[in-house]
Amino acid sequence: MKKLQAFNNWIQGLYDRAVDFVMVGLVLVMLIVLVFGFYDVVANLVRLIPGLRTSGIDEPEFREMVANVLDVFIIVELFSIFTSYLRTRHVRLSTLLDVTIVFALRELLIKLYSSSFTSTQLIGLCVVVLILVVCRSITGYFSPRQN
């Protein structure tokens, strides 16, 4: 019986190390993606600046820059989920809802900037955002208390 318990402990330890390895790898990948996302935002901004002086804002490039900035916000929120998991070994529902809210707002803003939406799509996205915000508020109210 002791050998079985020792084997079980060894397997659980191996699993914990494998999860740690994968999570650290994902954090490194997220860092690289974050750097490239920031670079893309800066590159778009550099391309937009000369146009601001001469002819004003080029709509497609401006929309692309707004989408890239919102993508960086989503990456930052995902990064916080991974780092939080590494510290606490669990994922908070409120953090997942934060990422989902940012993503839904990104989609809403992109549709508004592109002017390619129907009223049904706009109302649907607004309802989704509203429900997510209500759920996020509820998770803040019912969050587990620290001892």
Tag the structure with descriptive keywords.
single chain; 147 residues; mainly alpha; 2 domains; flat
Structure overview:
The chain is mainly alpha-helical. It is 87% helix and 0% strand. It has four helices and no strands. The chain has helices spanning 2-54, 59-88, 93-114, 119-141. Helix 1 runs antiparallel to helix 2 (59-88) and helix 2 (59-88) runs antiparallel to helix 3 (93-114). The longest helix is centred in the N-terminal third of the chain and has 53 residues, at 2-54.
Helix content: over 70%
Could you report the average pLDDT, rounded to the nearest whole number? 84
> What number of domains?
2
Pairing-aware structural class of the strands and helices? mainly alpha
Largest sheet: none
Number of strands: 0
One letter per element, helices H and strands E, the order comes to HHHH
The DSSP helix count reads 4
- Radius of gyration, rounded? 21 Å
* Strand composition percent: under 5%
Distance between the termini: 36 Å
The coarse overall form would be: flat
Residue stretches low in confidence (pLDDT < 50, at least 5 long) are none
